[in-house]
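User: Run a structure prediction on this.
Assistant: Running it now.
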Amino acid sequence: MAKLSKVTTDGESSREPRPSLERTQSDSDQHHGRDGHELLAEAGLGTMPRAAPVRVAALDAEHLRNAVASRLFGTAAEPVKIGKFTVLKRLGAGGMGVVYAAYDTELDRKIAIKLLRGVDEEGAHITRLKREAQALAKLSHPNVVHVYEIGTFRSQVFVAMEFIEGVTLRDWEPKDQPGVVQLIVEKFSEAGRGLAAAHAAGLVHRDFKPDNALVGDDGRVRVLDFGLARGLDEQEQPGESTLDQSHELLESHDSTLRQPLTRTGAILGTPAYMAPEQHIGNRADARSDQFAFCVALWEKLHGQRPFRANGLRQLAMKVLEGRIEEPEHSRHAVPQWLRRAIERGMSVDPEQRWPDMNALLAALAVDPRKRRRWLVAGGLLATLALGGTGWALTRDPPPSPCEGGERELVGVWDDEIRGRVHASFSATNAPYAENAWLGTSRHLDAYADEWVIMHREVCEASVVRQEESPELFGRKMVCLGQRLTELEQLTKLLVDVDADVLSRAVVAASSLARIESCADERSLFSDVDDERLDELERLLASANGRKSLGKYNEGLDIAQQALALAQAIGTPHGEARALLLLGDLQSKRRKTPEAKQSLREALRRADVAGDDATRVEALTQLMRVSFLEHDLEAGEALADDARAALARLGDAPLLEADFYLHYASLALARGENQRAGEYHRRALAIREAQLGADHPEVAISLTNISNALLAQGEHQLSEQMARQALVIFEAQLGSDHPYTAASQNNLGNSLLEQGRHITWSDPKRARPYFEEAVEHYRKAVKIREANSDGEHPSVAVNLHNLAEAQRWLGDYADARQDLERSLEIKRKHMDEDHPSVMLTVTALGRVLTELGEYEAALALLRPTADPSKQQERSPDVIAESLFALARAVQLAASDAASDADRKQATIEAHALATQARADYLEAGEDFRGEREQVERWLAANPI
């Protein structure tokens, strides 16, 4: 297909910055420099049977006449217009219509216009088309065509869209190089994200194929031709089965199967990519798009489609029977875990496919740990001839002595273990159990594949190519054995999980020790030779697995056993690792004195062993202990030591990221918010580079940055980071996961703070922030309730925040209901004087005051003004309590029987408000609006 036309990317932003939601568009029918009919035949954009002709001949003729007149008479050609758009030239024609380049004089931009085939302004489908164009116009996503306008021209429907240059996903050909499979999957995943966004907006594409996605010159993929889109909940007329198509006899070429299949007034899809339900004339839904997407991805990876046939009937039968054909000569080597993910998306039964596009995209994340730089060299070396081994004299090449790494996975991560883990997850009945399984299995599949490849490479380097010594070979194999033991111990824990363990499973699977470290001689230690080392590794792996799944007490017991065994063996390296793990677990149980002792001893044993990596880890963990003890001076000194140790160690990016993470916590405790934000950004940049932009650890870093920015008063940037974190959590863990609930709450906090600051100057502009905050808080509450008995403290926190947003909106009745429930839950878990309880009591008192229930408000608020209960509360929280009480006192006194009572109440209220003003002043400029509100009240209510 010819190269497509130029795009102008109008980065029109919405109310708040959303960097992942740029508005873009293009169209698969845009071409230049070639005849439209030639392109129609080449791209498979014709229709069967032929659809109604587009009534554009008059438009083209008019354009031609004007050009001829200009040449003959030397006058400027009269521009041809479609509505307010000036037509520049015809770009091409397709099964759905004709595309023109045009110019929008009002907004000074070049656009594309499509005149739709067979749909006029009085047609039965114009209402649906307009509705869907409006939905697309509102859908601002970087991987979805952006529609500007829909209208009519001489009784013909047109759609105005953004103008883009690029090539279709079919014509896009990456260079055959290491990592090409990952690149292909990444590009298709961009298209998949566009489909997912459309599905979330209630639209189904119904004709996704490589021709309907464009790789722009900017490298971004956009999904095109949503002209077939239909609402997810819209009833669809029964279609014809492709098994009964009469034109089966007319054409049986492969190009025919790539052409859209139509009926009067509608396009059913393109046969080669149609799902089984479409072939039998049933309704297409989002899962049909998923099927088409997987067919297209398979085709790009293998160079041929999974269902190959000579005609429609044969194709339909193969699709309906799920007969995927093995590629004769696959274009690329596709790993088994990736193949399994794609095959599931092509299941005959829609219920057996991935739950949605987001789940599929999570499963397709190639090399999610981004730890395969060694594969390039390994793959090249593995192709070298086995010269000098004696096998050159034989006619047939021998089996490689280094094959068989897969057998080591039996009983560790094989089909049986996979089935048991899946069943264990399902048995929890958690709403996010399936998504947790998908994420966990994806990471463990990738880890197992990586282990097998590394196992083969280490063997071939020593045994086949004899490039490395037997001693180094042995040390690397010991390291790989340790990694296999860690995988085994984790999967053993995963075959019997509860809801709490389930919530941590994906992160645990994504955080296994890096396999590539076995290629780094600095990390290979062999200080003793003892048969008990295998048992030591099993204990360390078992304790570490329990730590990653939150089983801290069990992990502590096993870590103690590991330490005792390491001491008995006399391995300084083993002792250092056991002490590091023990100290980490102790700090997580808030046993800080014990943790400090264990970690300092780990430092000493690491120095004896010459283990710089463990030394860095011990120092960063000691920084965390200093933070927990609020010993900031000691933490700063430890940070200096850790920085020096990192410099000596050299390239250790993930350890450096952990260092910055703990250093940021210390800076935040010092009140150095800007410095904390900078450290969090450094940690984020490293994690993105090392783990991939969609890794759960990246989402955690984004959350940390968002919270630091919120503390700095950088509310818009905080919101931006919170949104990115939420996208990752939803994609990696699912929309019902507890971590996603926390992320929804964090985004609500960013929005609430923005609204709070704006409302003092522009209440109307602040309202949408509060409304969206309510939406996110409600989602958080719903997730928390679904994953607990509804009485968990986290439910109370989310209810409190929800009520705060409702209060700013003036929804006092709803706020009261949520605050009363929040308070009820908190009182079951906390003392009455707990700061969190007092916070909700204050909020409820304020709401009762607004509802006119002054006596009830006073009964709640008076205890909050007690100085003895304000020790652990920040100045802004104290000020809020005092001013809420002041207003309640003053309003309650308005009904007092005597002037003296009213005067006394006014004096008390004035004193409370004066103190509140002082506390807001101490709280800083972030609470300037609240302070000025108190000052206005004082001026309006003099003594």
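The longest strand covers residues 109-120.
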